[in-house]
Amino acid sequence: MKKLGTLQSIFRHPVKAMQGEQLTTSEVDAFGLYGDRAYYFLDDSRGGKYLSADVVPALLGYHASMGEKTGEEAYPDVQVEARDGSVHTWGESLFAHVAETAKRAVTPMRSLPTEGGKNWEDHILLVTDASLRELARVIGSDWIDPRRFRGNLIVELEDDEPFAEDKWLGKKLQINDVTLQVTKHCERCMYVNIDPDTLQKNPAVLKACVKRHENHFGVYASVVTTGTVSQGDEVFILE
């Protein structure tokens, strides 16, 4: 077992395609971070596909947070703050607001804890601080917002090697009592171009992903052993 670094940040996105929340600790269940992407909308104009920010970038102007876990039967309620400052719970006012923003009919959906959230690929997305710095360098910036990449776990590496996560593919990671199996690269789309605060687009970000790392940024992992992870936990690779 070799130490890779420490867990720098934890991000959960309770509503798919909206901004999420930064946590200091999180339960990891069989589906990933507890409550991650537990709520979502279907796009009625596109045959019931997920309503996503590549089609409606303004979705990233909503910020969602989830309440404390109170039982096993249902996920806690969420609170969503819209870009206009209005605050909504999961109900008709939010549904109408999202439909108006998206300029289309939508169907709100809520997963059960027994089925997990609606991730595009695997359970958890990992990103490293070294790779973030390298991508910032490529686009000529001192810093790039990690929220652009919608990772769940940001790992601060000991060796500071950009894209060291490539070496994790096919291997297991240990974070506290949680074991993860790293499965694949994350192939990027125009999501990364959208500034999470201003919603302005910068095509240089996706171009940098393509130029520097074949349009890959971050790696997906599935959950092998459930448990709890916290900011500052040591991250190990099982060799």
List keywords for this structure.
three-stranded antiparallel sheet; mainly beta; 239 residues; seven-stranded mixed β-barrel; 3 helices; M1 Pyruvate Kinase, Domain 3
Number of H/I helices: 3
Estimate what percentage of residues fall within beta strands: 35-45%
Q: State the helicity in percent bands.
A: 10-25%
**Cα end-to-end separation:** 6 Å
Question: What's the SSE pattern?
Answer: EEEEEEEEEHEEHEEEHEEE
Can you tell me the CATH topology? M1 Pyruvate Kinase, Domain 3
CATH architecture: Beta Barrel
Question: Which regions have little confidence, pLDDT < 50, spanning 5+ residues?
Answer: none
Instruction: Give the name of the CATH superfamily.
Output: PK beta-barrel domain-like
* Shape annotation: globular
Report Rg.
Answer: 18 Å
* CATH domain class name: Mainly Beta
Number of domains: 1
- Mean of residue pLDDT? 96
Largest sheet: 7 strands, mixed, barrel
Number of E-type strands: 17
Structural class: mainly beta
Spatial order of the strands forming the largest sheet: 1-12-11-15-14-13-17
What this model shows, in words?
This protein is mainly beta. The protein has one domain (2-238): M1 Pyruvate Kinase, Domain 3, CATH 2.40.33. It has helices spanning 92-102, 129-138, 204-213, and strands at 2-12, 21-23, 25-29, 32-33, 39-43, 49-50, 63-66, 78-81, 87-89, 106-110, 124-128, 153-157, 172-175, 178-187, 216-225, 227-230, 234-238. It has a seven-stranded mixed barrel. A three-stranded antiparallel sheet has the order 4-3-16, with no helix packed on it. A three-stranded antiparallel sheet has the order 6-5-10, covered by helices on one side. A hairpin with a 5-residue loop joins strand 5 (39-43) and strand 6. The mean pLDDT is 96.
